[in-house]
Amino acid sequence: xxxGFRPSHPKISIDDDPGIRAQIEALTGDLSQQQLAKxxxxxxxxxxxYVDDHQQYDRQIRLAFDxxxxxxxxxxxxxxxxxxxxxxxxxxxxxxxxxxxxALECISWAVASAFVDDNALRAADQAIKLVNLTQPNDSSxxxxxxxxxxxxxxxxxxxxxxxxxxxx
Length: 168
What we know:
- InterPro entries: Imm5-like.
- The relative contact order is 0.18.
- The chain has helices at 18-28, 33-47, 59-72, 78-92, 98-112, 118-134, 139-167.
- Residues 1-5 have low confidence and may be disordered.
- The protein has one domain.
- Helix 3 runs antiparallel to helix 4 and helix 6 packs antiparallel against helix 7 (139-167).
- By secondary structure, it is an all-alpha fold.
């Protein structure tokens, strides 16, 4: 853990593996907001499988992913990403299941990581809520998801470090 690091508590009620979450949160301090947004979208893409069938191919979802990715390379404004995130959030009300709604909320938080870096961690927490809904009372499933999230994040950190060393 980095000096002065204090794990935050999830903003939603979830059954979680707090130890791995704390490790994830500690690693997030090593990344830029663009890199956190990249990680959040990796999580959101995994959540897509749980979006209700009638919304699976909704254009607003694809546009929201695109808006975040374009923001990462400075091709769209934060305002445009906010609009895209709000459109995904509006789809939550049209969802026919709590699982589909949780998946859309995960995607919305991931897209919103472009304008608040803490939203990347909220997307990760929302993915845990999704695991809680799809596999109730399964602590091993929660731990597996947190391990996967950690591995994705650690991989980004490693690639960044390799890239920096290559530049030197």
